[in-house]
Design brief:
Elements: E1 6-11, E2 14-19, E3 41-42, H1 50-59, E4 66-67, E5 74-78, H2 82-93, E6 97-101, E7 113-114, H3 118-121, H4 128-137, E8 142-147, E9 152-157, H5 164-167, E10 179-180, H6 181-195, E11 199-200, E12 205-211, E13 216-221, E14 226-229, E15 231-234, E16 254-266, H7 267-271, H8 274-280, E17 289-294, E18 299-304, E19 308-316, H9 331-339, H10 346-353, E20 360-367, E21 381-383, H11 398-416, H12 421-451, H13 455-460, H14 471-474, H15 478-494, H16 517-525, H17 530-533
Parallel strand pairs: 5-6, 5-15, 6-11, 8-17, 15-21
Antiparallel strand pairs: 1-2, 3-4, 7-10, 8-9, 12-13, 13-14, 16-19, 16-20, 17-18, 18-19
Helix pairs in contact: 2-6, 2-11, 4-6, 11-12, 11-15, 12-15
C-alpha cells in the first residue's frame, strides 16, 4: 500500500497533516480537522518586566505559555514521575484533554540529584515560569575524575555537552549536569497547578485494557474502579501493569548484577566534618563540585553544592539491596562494601559518614532488555519512560529520555488528531525505540569506563576518562523531530512496514540491531571494549 498525498508543512514550529484516503479501511489516515498552524491560544496574560522580556527574546524563550487549538483527544496518564508530568504538560499545550493519576498517596519528596541533558531542557523554552524556576535552582557542576588513592586523573571540566565548541548557537535555558530531584519535581508540579491540572494521588493501577471497536483504552484501579480515555499512557515505572497488554514485553526485570548506595542531605552535614573541609575546601556559593572516584569493579560519586551534599556508590549486587527507596542504610555498611574492592580514601570515608540517619538507600539496579513494541495491539494503551525502557544511572540519560518521550507522544497525537490517535501512538513508538535502545547501551559503556577502566589508554590520554554524553543524544530536538518525521512514521505504521521509516535520531552511520544485557555483560567480562564494538559514530 502506498499513501501518495501526505503533506508536512511547518510554520511557527507546528505542522499540518493531510493524508489522502486510499480506501483501505485499516490504512485510512484522516485530517484531524484542526489546523495546528492556527493561532496559538495564550493560557495566561502576564505583565513581564523589561529585563525578562529582553532575556526571553534574546534566548528564544516563549514570553508566556501558548496553547494550540483543542484536538478533542482525551488522554489519561498513569504515573506522575518526570515522564508522566512532562506528558501531561505537553498534552495540554498541544490541545489535548488531560487527566493524570499516581499510585502514591502524595508527592514523594525524596531523592538526591537527577541529570537532564540539553535535548530535554529544550522543553522549558515553552514553559517560561517553570524554566526560570529550574534555572535558579540547578547545579552548574565542574566534573573531575580520581583514582581511589586520591590521584587526580582529569578535571575539573564541564560535561561534554557544555564544552565551548558545543555551546555556540545554543539558545533557551542553559543545560547543566545536575538538578535537585526534589526542586525539579516541585517546579513541574507547580506548572501543572498553574494550568489547573490536578494529580489524583492514591490511585494504584492493577490492570490495563483496550476496546478497539469502541476506540478507547482503559485501566482498572485497586478499588475496582475503571477509567477510560482515547489514549491511556502507562508511565507507572519499571513495575508497570501494562506488561500484560503490550506484546513481546519481557514480563520480568533482570538484575544487572549491580546495586547503588546513594544519599542526599543538607550540605552543612558534610561540611561539619574537618576531613571533608580540608579535602575539598568548599564554601557554599562557589561552583559546585562533582567528582567520580574510580575503583576495581565499582565507583563512587560525590558532590557538594550550595545547599546539598550527595554521593553514590555503585557496587556488585548483594542481598541487602532492595527495590524500594527506603533510606534505612547505615553509612558504615557502605564503607565496608567499598573496602571489598579498594582501600577507601580517608576523606571519602569521612564524607560518607556525614550522611544523617534516614538518608541512605541501597537500590538494586534492574534492567529489562529493549522491547520494540510499546503499545497495546490497538494502540490505545502506550508506554512511556521507565515503563517502556529501563536505564542504568551510569547513562545519565534516563530522565532525559522520559522527558523526550512525553514531548514526542504529545506531538504525535496532535498531528494525528482524534481520528488517528491510536496510530499516532504507534508512530511515536517507531520514532523513539531505536534512539532509546542506543541510549540504554550507553549506560553500559559508561559503567565499563568507570569500573573496568583501560588504565593504559587513560595514561596516554587522560581526557578519555570523561563520562560519555554523545552528541547524537544532547543535540536532538524531540519536538522538531516529531514534526519532521511524523508523516513518515505514520505511513510506516499504516502500511504495516511496507513503507520504510529511516530514523536519524541515533548514532550516525549505525545500523540498528537487537541486543541484550547478557550479551553486553559477556563482552565486558571478555575484556572487549564496548565503544570499539559499535558501528557508526557514537561520540
Amino acid at each position: 500500500m502506498h499513501l501518495d498525498s501526505m503533506a508536512n508543512t511547518q510554520a511557527n514550529g507546528a505542522s499540518s497533516i493531510h493524508v489522502e484516503n486510499t480506501g483501505k479501511q485499516s490504512g485510512v489516515a484522516e485530517s484531524n480537522g484542526t489546523s495546528v498552524t492556527s493561532f496559538h491560544q495564550s493560557h495566561k496574560h502576564t505583565t513581564l518586566s523589561k529585563d525578562r522580556l529582553e532575556d526571553c527574546i534574546k534566548r528564544g524563550i516563549d514570553l508566556q505559555v501558548m496553547r494550540y487549538p483543542e484536538t478533542g483527544i482525551n488522554v489519561l496518564i498513569a504515573g506522575a514521575g518526570l515522564g508522566g508530568v512532562t506528558c501531561a504538560l505537553e498534552c495540554w499545550r498541544k490541545g489535548h484533554n488531560v487527566r493524570i493519576l499516581d499510585r502514591s498517596p502524595s508527592p514523594i519528596w525524596t531523592g538526591d540529584n537527577v541529570q537532564i541533558q540539553p535535548s530535554a531542557i529544550l522543553l522549558l523554552r515553552h514553559w517560561p515560569d517553570m524554566g526560570y524556576e529550574i534555572e535558579e535552582n540547578q547545579y552548574d557542576v565542574a566534573m573531575s575524575y580520581y583514582k581511589q588513592s586520591g590521584e587526580r586523573i582529569w578535571g575539573p571540566a564541564p560535561p561534554m555537552f557544555n564544552d565551548p565548541e558545543h555551546l555556540e548557537g545554543r539558545r533557551g535555558f542553559p543545560s547543566v549536569n545536575a538538578h535537585s530531584r526534589i526542586k525539579l519535581y516541585r517546579a513541574f508540579l507547580r506548572q501543572l497547578e498553574r494550568l489547573g491540572i490536578e494529580i489524583e494521588w492514591g490511585c494504584k493501577v492493577v490492570e490495563y485494557w483496550e476496546d478497539v471497536e469502541q476506540g478507547v483504552g482503559g485501566l482498572v484501579l485497586e478499588n475496582g474502579e475503571k477509567r477510560t480515555a482515547d489514549v491511556v499512557v502507562a508511565a507507572d515505572g519499571l513495575r508497570t501493569k501494562s506488561s500484560t497488554i503490550v506484546p513481546g514485553m519481557p514480563k520480568d526485570l533482570t538484575t544487572s548484577g549491580k546495586a547503588i548506595y546513594r544519599a542526599g542531605y543538607p550540605v552543612e552535614h558534610a561540611l561539619s566534618d574537618p576531613k571533608v573541609r580540608e579535602m575539598w575546601n568548599f564554601k557554599p556559593g562557589e561552583q559546585p563540585i562533582w567528582q567520580f572516584w574510580l575503583g576495581n569493579g565499582s565507583h563512587n560519586m560525590i558532590a557538594l553544592t550550595h545547599d546539598l551534599a550527595f554521593w553514590s556508590f555503585i557496587h556488585s549486587h548483594d542481598v541487602s539491596a532492595n527495590e524500594s527507596w527506603i533510606p534505612d542504610i547505615d553509612p558504615a555498611e557502605v564503607i565496608t562494601e567499598m573496602e571489598k574492592n579498594d582501600a577507601v580514601h580517608p576523606a571519602i570515608a569521612a564524607f560518607i559518614r556525614t550522611a544523617p540517619k534516614g538518608s541512605v538507600v541501597n537500590w538494586q539496579l534492574k534492567f529489562r532488555d529493549p522491547h520494540e513494541q510499546w503499545t497495546s495491539p490497538g494502540g490505545r494503551v502506550v508506554q512511556l519512560g521507565d515503563a517502556a525502557h529501563a536505564f542504568l544511572p551510569t547513562s545519565g540519560n534516563g530522565a532525559t529520555q522520559a522527558i523526550e518521550d512525553g514531548v514526542t507522544l504529545a506531538t504525535c497525537l496532535q498531528l494525528g488528531g482524534k481520528a488517528q490517535a491510536a496510530n499516532a501512538t504507534k508512530a511515536y513508538n517507531k520514532l523513539r525505540f531505536q534512539r532509546v535502545s542506543c541510549g540504554q547501551k550507553m549506560g553500559f559503556v559508561n559503567q565499563q569506563l568507570k569500573q573496568h577502566t583501560d588504565w593504559d589508554a587513560i595514561a596516554k590520554n587522560p581526557a578519555l576518562i570523561r563520562s560519555r554524553y554523545p552528541k547524537w543524544v544532547w543535540s536532538h530536538d524531540p519536538e522538531a523531530y516529531a514534526y519532521e518525521k511524523f508523516c513518515e512514521a505514520l505511513n510506516h505504521v499504516l502500511s504495516d512496514g511496507e513503507i520504510p521509516l529511516h530514523n536519524t535520531n541515533f548514532p550516525p552511520g549505525h545500523k540498528y540491531r537487537a541486543w541484550s544485557m547478557k550479551e553486553v555483560q559477556e563482552q565486558i567480562k571478555a575484556g572487549q571494549k564496548l565503544e570499539d564494538l559499535q558501528d557508526g559514530d557514537w561520540s
